[in-house]
From TrEMBL:
InterPro entries: NAD(P)-bd_dom_sf, SDR_fam
Keywords: Oxidoreductase
Lineage: Eukaryota, Fungi, Dikarya, Basidiomycota, Agaricomycotina
Species of provenance: Guyanagaster necrorhizus
Family assignment from sequence similarity: Belongs to the short-chain dehydrogenases/reductases (SDR) family.
Domain of life: Eukaryota
The name this protein goes by in its record: Short-chain dehydrogenase
Transmembrane segments: none
SUPFAM superfamilies: NAD(P)-binding Rossmann-fold domains (SSF51735)
Length: 344
């Protein structure tokens, strides 16, 4: 599907779909990036549904504690836990996954919400920082959490979910042919010489496209048990949050986004309803949302590029590259791949 600016504006000018609710009294949730923006508002929605365990994350402990106190004050829910994770640091992601493996009895819902947007090239552990934060860190975490989710499905006859927070910016980019044909798509996208200013202007969009493709790939590869785990990508819509505060005032693209924000952005509370929909919407029909992209609480066709032959090639290659990259830094990933993930 194509998505024009007018379609975006039309959706943004509609009332945000209402929040869905569910009985979470026996469920365990992990919500990544809960100290601010969409994650903070989604955390309050989930807290109001009284989950058995609600693991909220921040990368900064002080910010996390402040958010936790506010969530408790606003909802009366006292069981939320603060765990620390920095997605741009593989050791931090691995430590978090190890802790979840050890300390959680079950995992019903993982919401991969945290993310960043910048137009500046910066590295984190040798990777372009946006790619590391929005794709590599979340990818590693999701794969490491699969065994716990499969175990949850088996032991409790549950239908665990992974929710990847994507964006409609994924409609406005594609991965170029020379990148697709290169030895490594992720390595090329991360390469400093490749990341010219022009490339960095759509880098965030690229990472959100990779989010959509990752959700699809993970759904396809969860070994012979696709019925047990649901993976979906959600678009919260354009919302007023901290995400847009690092945009340079002299870039035309940034100015266009900021103008839209001022004209028709949702609040973070409104946008957070899409995170909640991904987690507990369509409970009577898991199949409907498996591997799908959701916006305005409806399954919506992904971008023309995402569903094109090239899109499918990128989906498959990036999946393989991720397994290799993650396997090199975390032997448990290789084990997960062997036991739980398979070729389609
Ligand atoms: N706002 C929008 O219009 C919009 C539209 C579509 C999609 N989205 C997506 O929604 C998600 C949330 O964005 P938001 O709008 O709520 O932005 P936000 O207000 O900037 O919140 C981003 C969250 O991600 C965390 N984060 C950033 N880098 C991190 C890292 N390296 N490790 C762990 N956590 C990190 C932030 O923590 P700190 O507070 O420590 O920075 C914060 O908790 C993102 O995936 C974004 O792409 C947003």
């Amino acid at each position: 599907m194509r998505r024009t600016h007018d379609q975006l504006a039309a959706d943004q000018n509609k009332p945000a779909p209402p929040v869905v609710t569910a009985d979470l009294s026996e469920k365990t949730l992990i919500l990544i990036g809960a100290n601010a923006g969409l994650g903070f508002e989604a955390a309050k929605h989930f807290a109001s549904m009284n989950p058995a365990r609600l693991v909220l994350t921040a990368r900064d402990e002080a910010k996390g504690k402040m958010a936790l106190a506010q969530i408790q004050e606003d909802t009366g829910y006292t069981k939320a836990e603060l765990w620390i994770i920095d997605l741009a640091n593989f050791s931090s992601v691995i430590a978090f996954a190890d802790k979840a493996e050890r300390e959680l009895d079950r995992l019903d819902i993982l919401i991969e919400n945290a993310g960043m947007m910048t137009y500046e090239y910066e590295e984190a552990e040798g990777w372009e920082r946006t790619l590391h934060t929005n794709n590599l860190g979340p990818g590693l975490l999701a794969i490491r959490m699969i065994p716990k989710m499969v175990e949850t499905a088996r032991r409790y006859s549950a239908h665990p979910r992974v929710v990847v927070v994507a964006s409609d910016t994924h409609y406005w980019t594609k991965i170029e042919k020379d990148v697709i044909g290169s030895a490594g798509i992720l390595a090329t996208l991360s390469n400093k010489e490749y990341c010219t200013q022009e490339v960095m202007y759509h880098r965030y969009h690229d990472t959100k496209l990779l989010n959509v493709l990752f959700a699809r790939a993970l759904q396809v590869h969860v070994r012979s048990s696709p019925a047990m785990i649901t993976v979906c990508a959600v678009n919260p819509g354009l919302c007023v949050s901290g995400l847009l505060t690092r945009l340079p005032s002299d870039a035309e693209e940034a100015q266009a986004i900021l103008k839209d924000r001022d004209e028709f952005a949702f609040t973070t509370e409104e946008g957070s309803r899409q995170l909640v929909y991904g987690a507990v919407g369509s409970l009577d029909d898991e199949e409907k949302i498996r591997g799908k992209y959701i916006q305005m609480s409806e399954v919506t066709e992904e971008s023309d590029f995402a569903i094109s032959e090239d899109g499918k090639i990128v989906e498959g290659k990036v999946w393989e590259e991720m397994l290799e990259i993650f396997g090199d830094i975390d032997p448990k990933v290789t084990e997960v791949a062997k036991v739980y993930l398979t070729k389609p």
